[in-house]
TrEMBL record:
This is Retrovirus-related Pol polyprotein from transposon TNT 1-94. It comes from the Eukaryota. Pfam families: Retrotran_gag_2. It comes from Cajanus cajan.
C-alpha cells in the first residue's frame, strides 16, 4: 500500500482482499482482456504495414520498429522469425 499514489489508494481502499486490489490496478493500467486484444490487433497491423517513411533516418525507423516489437512482446506476442525476415529486407 505504501507504493501506491493517493489516487491509486482511493481506488482500492475499500477492497477487502489483495486480489481485488491487484485486479483493479491491473485493469486500470493494463486494460481489460478486450482492450488487450484490440491493442494486439492494432500492433500486428502496424507491424504488417511497417515501412520506412520519407526522409526518415534508419535510427528513427529502427526505433519505431523496436517500439512495436516491445509492445507486442509485452502483450505476449513474439514475432522473432518474422522480425528476422523483416530486418533482412532492409
Amino acid at each position: 500500500m505504501c507504493a501506491l499514489t493517493e489516487e491509486e489508494y482511493t481506488k482500492v481502499d475499500s477492497f477487502k482482499s489483495a486480489k481485488q486490489m491487484c485486479d483493479t490496478l491491473a485493469i486500470t493500467y493494463e486494460g481489460s482482456l478486450e482492450v488487450k486484444r484490440n491493442k494486439l490487433s492494432l500492433l500486428i497491423r502496424k507491424y504488417e504495414l511497417f515501412g520506412m517513411e520519407e526522409n526518415e533516418s534508419i535510427q528513427t525507423m529502427f526505433g519505431r520498429f523496436q517500439t512495436i516489437i516491445n509492445e507486442l512482446t509485452f502483450l505476449g506476442r513474439t514475432l522473432l522469425s518474422q522480425t528476422k525476415k523483416f530486418l533482412v529486407r532492409f
